[in-house]
From TrEMBL:
UniProt organism field: Thermococcus nautili
Keyword Cell membrane: no
Protein's UniProt name: Putative archaeal membrane protein
UniProtKB keywords: Membrane, Transmembrane, Transmembrane helix
InterPro entries documented for this protein: O_anti_polymase (IPR002760)
Keyword Chaperone: no
Transmembrane segments: 12-37, 58-75, 95-112, 119-140, 160-179, 253-273, 285-318
Length: 330
């Protein structure tokens, strides 16, 4: 099984274990099958990976800028959010987003190139006291190691387990320092599935927001306003300023209803094609977006920095596909 297949498999597992309603399970199954079908079709796309010709020193600069931004924000706050989680709401959201946009693909690229200091990024970003970026970083780096080492016949299970265990340790540390328990994680898990249940039952079959929810993932970063998860909370009549996650499907369904399966197919098509990446820059984009997709099973894919990474990956595939078409024409 190719790693991208984990996205629909984990998604269905998530909603099933979360005891979703039968209607939710049925819509989720169609959505998951659309992703799998897209992966299968994408795997047949012939393209030549030209990558992005970027000097490695610039990737290094991006990596250290991301680390620098993290340290700057900690200094500006005068305290460490990891030790005092309540202050994490005072982090600058645009700088935080820039940290993710630069740090995740740069650390994966450097890891692929044999720079072990790339593992500093998940440790540094854990200072923000947010679990998602730590999980994304560890999954991306772990996936890169797994496929690279397996392809070369040098897979060290202990090393892979060490990377994943380190990530799990950071995740649990953040969880406990934030005053949460494992039981509270289970409550969040069930509430996320319950939110999807309400969306499927109350949302219009042809869509409620007509694309505005996912567009808010762009607009909220540029000129403010409701975030996508804020719009989900608004739909669920939660008016306390809270944001709510509703799985990978929730935001898409609120925008386009049952036609969210088309987005699912396109997501799978992207993963199926980009999984054949060979250039280090494209592979870094592949593993980064794969990690966001896996974590997005719970959080959704609803943020501008993530959109940009997907667009860059899709552009690399399109550019390589055009080259192959020109060769065939001649």
């Amino acid at each position: 099984m190719k790693l991208p297949a984990l996205v629909p498999v984990l998604f269905m597992t998530y909603v099933a274990v979360g005891l979703a309603e039968p209607k939710t399970l049925a819509v989720s199954l169609v959505f998951a099958l659309a992703i799998l079908f897209g992966i299968r079709r994408g795997d047949r796309v012939e393209w030549r990976d030209l990558g992005f010709e970027i000097d490695e020193r610039y990737v290094n600069y991006a990596f250290w800028i991301a680390i620098g931004i993290i340290l700057y924000q900690v200094i500006r706050l005068g305290n460490i959010p990891l030790l005092h989680p309540a202050i994490r709401t005072h982090l600058n959201p645009r700088l935080t987003a820039l940290t993710y946009f630069l740090g995740v693909p740069a650390s994966v690229y450097l890891f692929i190139r044999g720079k072990r200091y790339a593992l500093l990024y998940p440790v540094a970003v854990s200072l923000y006291a947010y679990r998602t970026p730590v999980l994304v970083s560890i999954i991306a780096i772990g996936s890169a190691y797994y496929e690279s080492a397996k392809g070369e016949g040098k897979l060290d299970v202990k090393k892979l387990a060490g990377i994943l265990a380190g990530g799990a340790g950071l995740f649990l540390l953040i969880t406990f320092l934030r005053g949460n328990t494992l039981s509270s994680l289970w409550v969040r898990f069930q509430s996320t599935v319950s939110a999807l249940d309400v969306i499927i039952w109350r949302g219009d079959w042809s869509g409620t927001y007509g694309g505005q929810l996912q567009w808010a993932g762009v607009a909220s970063y540029i000129w403010g306003g409701y975030s996508p998860r804020g719009l989900i909370a608004k739909f669920l009549y939660v008016h306390t300023g809270a944001t709510i996650t509703a799985t990978l499907l929730g935001g898409m369904y609120l925008d386009f209803g049952i036609f969210a399966v088309i987005e699912g197919f396109l997501l799978g098509l992207y993963y199926g094609a980009v999984s054949k990446a060979t250039h280090p820059t494209t592979r870094a984009l592949y593993y980064s977006t794969l990690a966001y997709g896996i974590v997005g099973v719970e959080t959704g894919i609803l943020d501008l920095p993530v959109y940009v990474l997907f667009l860059l990956g899709a552009y690399a595939v399109y550019k390589g596909w055009k080259v192959m078409r020109k060769r065939e024409a001649h």
